[in-house]
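Bug #77: duplicate submission created two jobs. Keeping one. Sequence:
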Amino acid sequence: MIAQLGALVANGRTADVYALKGGRVAKRYHDDWPDHLIDREIGDSQTAYDLALTPIRCHGRVEVEGGRAVAFDRIDGLALTTVAEKNVLRMGRVARALAAEHARIHRARTDAFVDVRTVAADLIDTPPLAPLTPAEKAALRDHLASLPRGDRPLHLDFHPMNVFEHAGGRATIDWQSTAVGDPAADVAMTRLLFTEAELFPGASKLQQLVYGAARGAMGRGYLREYQTLTGMTTAAIDRWATTARVLRLGLLDIASERETLLRGIRNGLHVEEPAR
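Kept job's structure:
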């Protein structure tokens, strides 16, 4: 039976979310999103629920009109981004809540996901990283091999639009890029999202100015609180900065970010090309 989609709840780069009957939502994927990545998100979302990383259960594929969709429990609260937008005086509290949720997730241990170093290494020969020279790609592989392994779940798209107030606590959604490894890799990725990532598609110059300044302040507050809670050093996070750029570029390949991310990757490797 084909499920009837209700009101649009949210939209994103890879999918749009619609209400369903029975306290659920349908995440309907855009036509260009690969089928195997949908299957991976289903499996990783179910594992995240089983590990108590999120209270939101994934119910697998659901038939809907107009495309492919997966059903999830519906969230009964607001995204932390929305909480901050409604009252700028709450920004500090939101930043601390974001850090506390991330630290909570990183306290878990698992071997259920793919190693983040493997995820990054598999992206080196994909089209988004094609501009890198053979020497740069070799240096990048050596760099990834030098990074520490870990056994903590990594969300890799952890930001305040993916963390919600829910049932008296918090709920993290969108486990579509989950990996396992050193938690500093996940924090480096979140730091990148607060600093180098595109703000949101179609943002005007004024929006970029206003929201960019607010995002920067929240990012600094998040990072300060996370480091206070966990004792993680800035050096440990910096070690994963190049990997974070590889993951962002290779997984999403957003046109407005390409040159900045490629430049950051090259600067992080410091590769000297052989003389010709």
